Amino acid sequence: MNTLWKLRQGLGALFLRLKKPSPAPEPALRPTLRRLVWGRKVSLAFRERLFEVAEELMVEPDHLMACIAFESAESFRPDIRNAAGSGAVGLIQFMPTTARALGTTSAELAAMSAERQLDYVLAYFMPYRGRLNSLGDVYMAILWPAGIGKANDWVLWDRDTKPAAYRQNSGLDLDRDGRVTKGEAVAMVEAKLKRGRLPAFIWEGV
Q1: Residues 129-160: tens digit of each pLDDT
Q2: Per-residue pLDDT reduced to its tens digit, 29-75
Q3: Who's near 45: CB < 8 A, 6+ residues apart?
Q4: What pLDDT does 89 receive?
Q5: Are 90 and 79 in contact (CB under 8 A)?
Q6: Are the beta carbons of 44 and 70 closer than 8 angstroms?
Q7: Does residue 6 carry a pLDDT above 90?
Q8: 3-state secondary structure of 28
Q9: pTM of the model
C-alpha cells in the first residue's frame, strides 16, 4: 500500500512537471547596425574589406573612407590618376616609388579591382598602426607622415623654406599666407567626411 502511494505521488509529480510551461526562449540578439560614409558609392565586398582593414589598422572606418573619397575625387576607382601628372594612382594615390616599395607597380595597381587594392592600402598604413587617432592623422599618413600626431597649426610647407613642395600643394593654403598647416590640409578631408554623411552617400546596414 505504501509502495502504491509512493508510485501515485511520483506520477503526480511527473504530471506536474510535464504541465509546467517551458521557459520562454531568450530573444535573439539583433545584429548591430553599421554605418559607413560614402558606403553607397562602393560594393558590398569593398565595404566588408574596408571594415576589416580599418579594424586591423585601429582606425575609424569613416576616416579611412573620407581620405579615399578625397584622394580619388569621390570615384573610389583603383585606376584614377593624379591630374597634375605626378604619376600617383588609385584609392590613396600611390606614388610610383611607394608602389615599388609595396612590391607592385603603378600599372598593376591600376589594373586590379578596388577591393584588391585595399590590401595595398592596408600594407601602406601598417607602419603607422596605433598612431592614427584622428582623421587628421590618417590623412597625414598619406600626405606627409611627419605630421602624424602634430597639432593643427603645425606647418607642413612654407613658401620660403620649401618652395617646391609649397608650389605643388599651394591649393591647400586656405588663408594664402604662404604656409600650409596640418589644419588647412585636413580641412579638405573633413569636408569630404561631412559630405559623405549625406543620405545619398552614407550606407547603413548589418
Answers
A1: 999 999 999 999 999 999 999 999 999 999 99
A2: 777 899 999 999 999 999 999 999 999 999 999 999 999 999 999 99
A3: 115
A4: 97
A5: yes
A6: no
A7: no
A8: coil
A9: 0.83
**33's torsion region: left (phi>0), alpha (psi -120 to 50) or beta?**
beta
DSSP state for residue 24 in the 8-state scheme: P
Arithmetic mean of pLDDT, 101-112: 98
As assigned by CATH, the class of the 39-197 domain is mainly alpha
Mean pLDDT of the chain: 90
Place of cell 520562454: 24
- Sign of the CA dihedral with 153 first, then 156, 162, and 168 last: negative
Cα 12 to Cα 71: distance, rounded to the nearest angstrom? 76
Helix, strand, or coil (residue 161): coil
The single-letter code of the amino acid at 47 is R
Q: What percent of the chain is helix, strand and coil (3-state, nearest 5)? A: 55, 10, 40
Point out which residues pair with 181 in neighbouring strands.
155
Helices (H), 41-198: 44-57, 61-71, 96-101, 106-111, 114-125, 135-143, 163-168, 182-196
CA distances from 69 to 38, 41, 76, 90, 110 (A): 8, 10, 6, 11, 17
> Strand 203-205 and strand 34-36: pairing?
antiparallel
The cell for 198 is 549625406
Q: Positive or negative CA dihedral for 187, 191, 194, 196?
A: negative
- At residue 22 the predicted structure's pLDDT band, cuts being 50, 70 and 90, is low
Domain coordinates of the chain in residue numbers? Answer: 39-197
